[in-house]
């Protein structure tokens, strides 16, 4: 074989290829940062708006009422004078705006004048609004009932808004219970299934069928799960709207993700561990129990994080099966016997956000509640995920391989 | 780290020393038989030759086995190489001792007296000391001693030439039958050959210690 | 002079008769007939794909793990019992026939737990007994001095050679009669290899050892008897001296002299 007669050129030259490479790497970078910026914007927006409901100016800085009370009607007392003034100014602005539109583009000078007027008026409205916010009185149901005497109707403009007061306490509890229960069930069933698939199953048409079914399950829309749960657990089994129905429906939703991730983590364990174990005279189950499952635990916990992510935020499955829009009792109150705990419905945060966002008229007060609930929800899901991650880190240290 | 089969090398060394000692012993017996006109010692020298031959075959077999099964390198393979060559040289030296003894027996049976005892004694003294030293410097791994042995070979060659001239001259053949002179010439040659083998041995020791094939 | 111990004085521990083995439709071993004597080291050599590893794994039925593997005919008798008989409990068999794998696979537990594993799964809980067995096995595998101060450290922190000797110690813990070694040194450097070979030389006083190796020099150094396999057939089986110095079969001659292929 003859040596190549090519010239030994290895110096850089300004070729198109280099610029293209640089452009590509910049492109990837920019796209990624855009996505992160978008995610950041969403979180920041929710955090900013939600913090108005969640955090208060004085110690202990967190609105405990918001976290513990159930949703109540908000009674708003706006200072009448200011309120009326604002209404007047607003109608004046509206008039000017109509007039400006009527003039259109024919008389630029007049149009600009009207524009200036509008601006002045708007500034006034702003100033008054500030004052209004400072002077108004807000009471939730509880507080309102506790008032010795209602504020003077002549001084204040009274309105009440449903669902805009109180807090999301029962919803938080309900969501936590639903997530914990469904993930527990899903983990148990999922790990059993993953063990079968990775350790005991033989390749063949049956296995293909099983995998196809699991894949299909993960593609089913969540509303269909809700209907399934409704038809089977609520109606057929006659459990009614109950936590158990919610648990099972959510568990089935989380199963595909948990099965797939758990099976992957079990397959990742090298064959040598099993072989070495068997060669020492262990039975198949002993080998799996001592040499595979403990080391697959971190992967299984990862799958649980993915499952929580899937399950915690779903509204449709729990809408018909487990969630109430409003419930007076907390889950452990008023139980006749132990099993009643499982057969009661609960409030849940995703459903509550849905109710608050779409079922009632929109205004600044309901907006507070919505964002507050959303922020609390994010924090809770983040908390579940974090505890799973910490648990996984601890187990990873113990069962390192 | 000592491997269990390194013992086989130690055994090989012992066998080499054994064949060396046997060859030296055979030579000593033969020459003593010649110088002292002792038939018994001569017979004993003749008998030793079979043992020496058997030892050489055993050493060869062990060497081939070690090369096949242990894949030696460096000093180990040089030891094997030297063992094969040295055992051959020692076996040839044994053969020469055997020849000396046979011829001595012939002379004694014919004349009951040997000739040239002085020069033969002088030659054999040098030759056997060379042989002994060669075995010693193999044991002690002494390169300098080996080099000195090589130098002494010339002396033996010189004495052998003198013997030849004297024994082959007209003076010597006063008797009609000069078989004894001829046998003595052969004996002198045999001793010279023994010295040659000792020199070879010394060269092989140098190769073993220094690894340079030019020394052989 | 060195002589190998006369094989006539030792008992036969494994008898293989007309053994045929296949993976599904493709046959891997053809009519194997071989008798292995106890407390000897037997080496299986041959080119890649000749079936030596497959054959080794038949002795402790590790091939059962592969679904399509099946025995077509013949028998393997260990101490007189046909190990492929239906009445044989595979798990019990594997306690008597231990195995060391090509890639050392220490469990990601502590050194102590690795050795104790075989006993723990049999239900042994007595700490003093476990301590005793651990020390015995680590001494038997010639790594006691190296690890006695860090028995509870992870086994994964050891070097490759130490790990392999740990695996040998682990296999010894259940007191097998036969030790199967599948290319135990192929991943080790020369010094670690030498240590394992010395270990094998020591162990053969008490255990029957069968070693598969593609390193012929290793087979020559370590074994008393050597079997040469090619394409699933046993070509020649004889004392190691004969196989390497005067093989009877020309194929064997070609293989050991490197003229094969």
Compile the SSE list and pairings.
The complex is a heterotrimer of chains A (401), B (216) and C (261).
Chain A: H1 16-54, H2 64-68, E1 71-79, H3 80-103, H4 108-135, E2 137-140, H5 141-146, E3 156-166, H6 169-200, H7 205-219, H8 222-236, H9 243-267, H10 271-279, H11 284-291, H12 293-312, H13 316-321, H14 349-358, H15 364-398
Antiparallel strand pairs in A: 1-2, 1-3
Chain B: H1 6-35, H2 39-70, H3 74-111, H4 117-140, H5 143-168, H6 179-210
Helix pairs in contact in B: 1-2, 1-3, 1-4, 2-3, 3-6, 4-5, 4-6, 5-6
Chain C: E1 12-23, E2 26-37, E3 41-45, H1 52-59, E4 69-78, E5 81-82, H2 90-96, E6 97-100, H3 111-120, H4 127-140, H5 144-147, H6 160-172, E7 178-182, H7 190-203, E8 208-212, H8 216-222, E9 225-230, E10 233-239, H9 240-245, H10 250-256
Parallel strand pairs in C: 3-8, 3-9, 6-7, 7-8
Antiparallel strand pairs in C: 1-2, 1-4, 4-5, 9-10
Helix pairs in contact in C: 3-4, 3-6, 4-6, 6-7
The CATH architecture category of chain B equals Up-down Bundle
Please indicate the percent range of residues of chain B in DSSP E strands (runs of 2 or more). Answer: under 5%
The number of helical segments of chain A is: 15
Order of helices and strands of chain A: HHEHHEHEHHHHHHHHHH
CATH class category label of chain B: Mainly Alpha
- Number of extended strands of chain B: 0
Output the number of helix runs of chain B: 6
* Largest pleated sheet of chain B: none
Class based on secondary structure composition and strand pairing of chain A: mainly alpha
The CATH topology of chain B is given as Methane Monooxygenase Hydroxylase, Chain G, domain 1
Large-scale geometry of chain B: elongated
Largest sheet of chain A: 3 strands, antiparallel
CATH A-level architecture of the largest domain in chain A? Orthogonal Bundle
